Amino acid sequence: MRLDTLLIHGDEGDLNTGAASTPIYQASTFRQHTVGQEGGYQYSRGNNPTRHALEKQMALLEGGCRGFAFGSGMAAATAVFNLFSAGDHIVASRNLYGGTSRVLDRVFSRFGLTVTYVDFCHIADIAAAITPATKALVIETPSNPTLMVTNIRAVVALAKERGLLTVADNTFMSPYLQRPLELGVDIVVHSATKFIGGHSDVLAGIVVVKDSKLAEDLHFVQNSTGGVLGPFDSWLLLRGLKTLGLRMDRQSQNAGVLAAWLRSRPEVQKVYYLGFADHPGYELHKSQAAGTGNVISFDVGDGTFARSILSKLKMCMLADSLGGVETMVNLPDVMSHGSVPPERKLRMGITPSLIRLSVGIEDPVDIIADLEQAMRR
Ligand SMILES: *Cc1c(COP(=O)(O)O)cnc(C)c1O
Prior knowledge:
The chain is α/β, with parallel strands linked by helices. It has helices spanning 3-9, 49-62, 73-81, 98-106, 123-129, 152-162, 174-177, 212-225, 231-241, 244-263, 282-288, 303-312, 342-347, 364-375, and strands spanning 66-70, 89-93, 114-118, 134-140, 165-169, 187-191, 205-209, 270-272, 295-299, 317-318, 328-330, 354-358.
């Protein structure tokens, strides 16, 4: 099946009753028929039918061997980092999501997992950071919020040459636009809170792995540490996934309109958007993804002005998230990236006047009208 069809038919619903929608198995435990029963469902931390349906669907969509659903994107990332041990080392992109670098720097560092951050635009810099203790390369492409593009194929080639795992945060693209496992990545992580859920009503995380050894290891971590997604939230994601393609198409199309409008405005000094042919990552992104996504960041040059725009918006929602059906705006400097050290923020292009826009599925005329009235001095 093609991806658009898989989104609808990948999850087959309830085979016992024919129900079109997979039921919410709101149960913590399951009756066992013999002592020490093998297979089937036993206890929902280990496996739950609704979660299992979601995990199977995500594995299909990402082209992996098994999926795992967690209570948040950070719980998913944490489970991946739990695959490593004290003394191991990771080389990670300097442009990782703030929460991902925070859990590495302030939680995993206390257990002896060390990280070196480098600019993943330069493959030579990644190679130079690899030590005998290095176990994995961690990337996020395109990056949040300035949409830097990492060459997935080149990173994978380096990782394979050095015997390392490659981990990719695919939140910004979703499997609809980018499938890193098909390019050789070993582990894909999602904040399913964003596009997979798509309706700003559920917090969730997904991991999909490529091979069965990793699947076994991750299932061990998932069951041992227990940060699993509940049945109802799993069902919300199954429901959200059915319109992932429609939403991504409309959001990307609206983003194109918004980006061109922003670029024409005298108040705006710089627009970061992957659909502009003069974006430094334009060609590379096109070679590894099927679309530009809906995120645009723009710099208005003055932090006070940026704050005034954000507080004057009436329809666009000032909020800490992205990927929902509603247009959301954010001031990365103090919101999504508030926990990132100042010098790292500036290197990422996050100034006090940078605004991030996650374009929704509204009529773009109304989004533009709202931004226009908010920009009036
Ligand atoms: C939001 C986000 C996360 C964290 O996910 P939560 O669901 O908020 O825990 C991780 N990576 C990226 C790229 C994100 O946007």
